[in-house]
Amino acid sequence: MDCETILPSPNDNCTVEYDGHLLEEDQVIEKKGKLYKVEDCALQRAYNACVMYLLQMVSIACDVIQNEKHKVPSKRRVRKSLRRKLLTEACCETLCTVAEMIRYCPSH
Fold it and tell me: Which Gene3D superfamilies match (predicted)?
């Protein structure tokens, strides 16, 4: 996937160019049967999950983050949403990325 970040705006939103199209923050596209969402000025893999699958996905994401904390301290920036969504609103009613899932981890 060849993505390029362009046109940053003053409100921390940006536009990402992909395959000749300009995509805005939170915009979703489908490529080869997989969903992607523009988040933090990059195209991220997105998931739609509800009930048990959603809880399993968040649990796995939290476990990975917890394991990574014990290895090397991360300098990765995690954007916090101004309005915290309910987990079901974030991933079941719409789509969410792994970065969004880890916002629901107990230690995050």
Answer: Insulin-like
